[in-house]
Amino acid sequence: MVTTTTSPPPKGPDTEARRSKSTARPGDKIFLGLSRGSGITLLVIMAAIAIFLTYRAALAISKDEANFLTTSEWNPAGNPPVFGIAVLAFGTIVSSVIAMIIAVPVAIGIALFISHYAPRKLAAPLAYVVDLLAAVPSIIYGLWGAIFLVPYLDGLNKWLDEYMGWTYIFDKASDGLARNLFTVGILLAIMILPIITNVTREVFLQVPKMHEEAALALGATRWEVIRMSVLPFGRSGIISASMLGLGRALGETMAVAVVLSPSFVISGHLLDPGGGTFAQNIASKFNEANEFGRDALIASGLVLFAITLLVNGAARWIIARRKEYSGAAA
Amino acid sequence: MSHAIQDRPVQTAVRHDPLRHARLPRWSPLAIAAGSIAAGVGLGLAAGWHSRIQWGLLAALFFVLGTYAVTAKVEGSRQAKDRVATSLVWVCFILAVIPLLSLAWVTISKGLETLDPYFLSHSMNGVLDAEVGGGIYHALLGTIEQVLLATLIAAPIGLLTAVYLVEYGRGKLAQAVTFFVDVMTGVPSIVAGLFILATWNLMLGFGPSGFAGAMALAILMMPVVVRSTEEMLKLVPNELREASLALGVPKWRTILKVVLPTAIGGITTGVMLAVARITGETAPVLLLVFGTKLINENPFEGAQASLPLYVYEQYAVGTDAAISRAWAAALVLIAFVMILNLVARGIARWKAPKTGR
Amino acid sequence: MHVDALHRTPRHTPPYNGQDIRFTAGGFWKEHPKVKLSRKNGLRATAIGALVVSGALVLTACGSDDNTGTKDGDKKTAAASNIKCDGAKGQLLAAGSTAQKNAMDLWVKNFQAACEGVEVNYQAIGSGGGITKFNQGQVALAGSDSALKEEEVAASQKICKDGKGINLPMVGGPIAIGYKLDGVDNLVLDAPTIAKIFDDKIKKWNDPAIAKLNPGVKLPDTSIQAFHRSDESGTTQNLGKYLSEAAPADWKHDPKSKSWPAPGGQAANGSSGVATAVKDANGAIGYFELSYATANKISTVKLNTGAAAPVEATTANASKAIAAAKIKGTGNDLALSLDYKTKADGAYPIILVTYEIACDKGNKAENLPTLKAFLNYTVSEEGQKVLSDAGYAPLPAEIATKVREIVPTLS
């Protein structure tokens, strides 16, 4: 998915044209058949999923009495059925943006810490631990978030309300538990931190030693070395790492479903419980929904799918662009 | 390299030498840190804020500002910026480590309260929600079987697809496959579950089973395996292939005997990491394996349980006994995933050529 | 996830260099030790895989389904019971309402203890999910908080050969209105006030409307936090039905909605989520089945129904209200219509009755004996007797008798 630093793949001499001449042997034919068959299987599965999703979503949207994109209500079981994704889109984007604002700088910080600041003895185990944390299942983050994090953020919420209330977004903290989009953003930030850190650190380690040593030789301080040689080199790597994290934040289901107190209201007050995300809405509504309600949820899933695809596409585009002119750097 | 910077000799002020500047003693960051923590806690106590988070944030702020002020005064602005960057990086590190450590600590400490051999070796048969007791044996067995089946489906298909893409594919089909593999990585996990439910269970009429769950997991696993294997195969130098081909070794033998063995370490790592990832998936399993309180050894027939599903169910039940079961199961799940990870990384490290960085 | 794996492999040096392969005269290439190493490692990887598999197999051998002499498990179920197994065997899949989960767990436990080799597997995924799975033929029995709708009955005819899905009332219970308000533990409310609270019209605990119902109680100036379910639920639906019948002027939302219809308020997932939220926040109010209030030690609102004295949410009081229910289903179908406006003394009207849904004809042959034996047990005196311990109300005798007549006719 993200291959920020791979050297250009060796272009074999065996292009399709050449191959046709040399695959006279039965073993080759079988092997080619097998591997091509796998590729085709994959294609078929994907196509089937795509058709299935679009079909069910189309069924739902065609009967929706309201504008699917702008309605902030979810009542597919009603008569007439009315549902729209405005709240979900808002909640998904807002919580992911909060997560990114918190996680990206911190992840860069940790990556720098591991690659340039930490004592060497500490750096290797640290990198290891961060790697492992990236693999913790999200249901466990959810469990921890709901039982442990939410009560802790309570005080912070009230404090933000008191001193930062004038910013509008931090106004109106509820008296109850901090089950709001801001908390979800923080939890998502914690979840994607290891992933972003991981990739970013690897990129930082790829910075050519010569650049750094040259800067040092000129008398630069450590920060100047980082600012002048490490960060510029790693910029696109950081962006693609962030996109990867963003992709995960957008699609996160269980952790959000467990932490958020959802409602179908768009509110700019982040500390006011409410809102919802695509994945959370699917998870909490799916069981009770009837056939049509499920189709409606699938339609919302399709939108999430499209957004994720866009983000992943953007990440890939950035990496591809980088590859073109960084061949020399590798 | 970092040593080169850190080990700069500590200098006392020598005013007349233009190349040497006044320097803070080495213990100064620690002193500033201690001071700002004290200030943060003090202010927090004075203002009566309950949440420790505010104390910590304040202390961090004081630390950064304090570092800047002190260094700017003694060492000049360039050094001050450097020190601020250092302190910021440390602050970031500590900020991030606290929640992550807390996650690990909470899971381990709460999990160990309930985790014992009995918990590992018994099912939930006949245990009511509010009662203590019961175990995760059925769920653990279910997860292992489902993940194993998913791997048996996804690994060969993924591997062969990657071989096709790297060794053969140049045409439109390869482009399409590449594109759809990318698309597939973005499939929300619940959608994969829905797809299997609609086809396998509803259209073909099979009942819920561990195998149905395994198929959904395989869908999620395939693109990951393809991607990682592809990258690994691309790293195999072309000279190897050419040498083998030049000797008249058939292409399929070249791939099987030269290319794949060379990349096997990386490929195994990729597969293991994919396995670790699907092990924690809850949503598709929720729809397909049905869940049960009994041990079901046969993944092809009848309802099965699964570990992430178990954690979710017990959390949703919400009684004290159930929550502590959820923590213990979460600990087992983490341990399981971590072991897979460690093994994968072990293989990667052990396979990495010694000439590396 | 695989990303880090990629980055782990160094790129500056090829992982392998060509000169490690030597060739022998025969034209076959021979592996240099280094290649051999790789292959050996490949073998080792396989070996690890084999180890995992055999580990799993070993695991298979040492697990146990036997939880009867557990640490704290009391053996109350081990006593001889009158459960008739009648050829029940194999696995019976059931799914549905979370409201009856605790009752089901209890029944399943007793039933399985009595009948060797039988598994009744009830998954509490929600009423709607249960009906959907039933109509897809995935489960033989669905539990639901509300009776089948017309279109659902129509859909069930595809699964029940020559028959249709019918509603068998099996267990009832009070929906408690739980609250947490420091210094107040004997709160009385009536339907219009509850409607206004949940509709965000009454925002403070010392509102005159509340004060009027609680003379002599010192109500604090705390703001009310009303919690509702974030998921779709029969509990929400039954509360909505109650409010729209008992307080039609103050509750104008869709009474049939399973998801929370009113604006404002906070939400939590599942009854347990609402109960936990109410327990933790001062000034909170929420609704859930009585068992959750008992388990979490949450005070419950006494209801001023117009009867002589305010009614407390207890299983006995709920039974009295359920007794006033009328059967509205026809033939084998025993769907009930509940009387939410009852003013009878000691009748607690916020109730829900949950049904078991099965085919009257055309149940799958392999499931039928188990299904009948299990339902026979649940509706028997013995089965109904265990309910009140778990916070449920047993069926009134008249309705229970009807159910007992119908269960043996299932085919």
UniProtKB/TrEMBL annotation, chain A:
Its keywords, alphabetically, are: Cell membrane, Membrane, Phosphate transport, Transmembrane, Transmembrane helix, Transport
Q: Where in the cell is it found?
A: Cell membrane
Show the taxonomic lineage. Answer: Bacteria, Bacillati, Actinomycetota, Actinomycetes, Kitasatosporales
- Keyword Transcription on this protein? no
Q: By what name is this protein known?
A: Phosphate transport system permease protein
Q: Which Gene3D superfamilies match?
A: MetI-like
Q: Which residues form the ABC transmembrane type-1 domain?
A: 89-315
Q: Write out the GO MF terms.
A: phosphate transmembrane transporter activity
Query: What membrane topology was assigned to this protein in its record?
Result: Multi-pass membrane protein
Q: Its Gene Ontology biological processes?
A: phosphate ion transport
Keyword check for Ligase: no
Function statement: Part of the binding-protein-dependent transport system for phosphate; probably responsible for the translocation of the substrate across the membrane.
Q: What is its main location?
A: membrane
Q: Which Pfam families match?
A: BPD_transp_1
Region described as Disordered: 1-24
Q: Which residues cross the membrane?
A: 39-61, 81-114, 126-153, 181-200, 249-271, 296-315
Q: Name one GO cellular component term.
A: plasma membrane
Q: Note the superkingdom of the native organism.
A: Bacteria
Which family does the entry's similarity section mention?
Answer: Belongs to the binding-protein-dependent transport system permease family. CysTW subfamily.
Q: What organism does the UniProt record list as the source?
A: Streptomyces purpureus
From TrEMBL, chain B:
The cross-references to Pfam families, in alphabetical order and at most eight, read: BPD_transp_1
Primary location: membrane
What molecular functions are annotated in GO for this chain? phosphate transmembrane transporter activity
Query: Does Cell membrane count among this protein's keywords?
Result: yes
What does the record say about its membrane topology?
A: Multi-pass membrane protein
**Which keywords does UniProt give here?**
Cell membrane, Membrane, Phosphate transport, Transmembrane, Transmembrane helix, Transport
Q: Which domain of life is it from?
A: Bacteria
Q: Which residues are listed as membrane-spanning?
A: 30-49, 55-72, 84-108, 147-166, 178-200, 206-226, 258-278, 326-348
Subcellular localization: Cell membrane
Q: Outline the extent of the ABC transmembrane type-1 domain.
A: 140-344
> Which terms does the UniProt entry file under GO BP?
phosphate ion transmembrane transport
Q: Which GO CC annotations does the UniProt entry carry? A: plasma membrane
Stated family: Belongs to the binding-protein-dependent transport system permease family. CysTW subfamily.
Function according to Swiss-Prot or TrEMBL: Part of the binding-protein-dependent transport system for phosphate; probably responsible for the translocation of the substrate across the membrane.
Task: Write the protein's name.
Answer: Phosphate transport system permease protein PstA
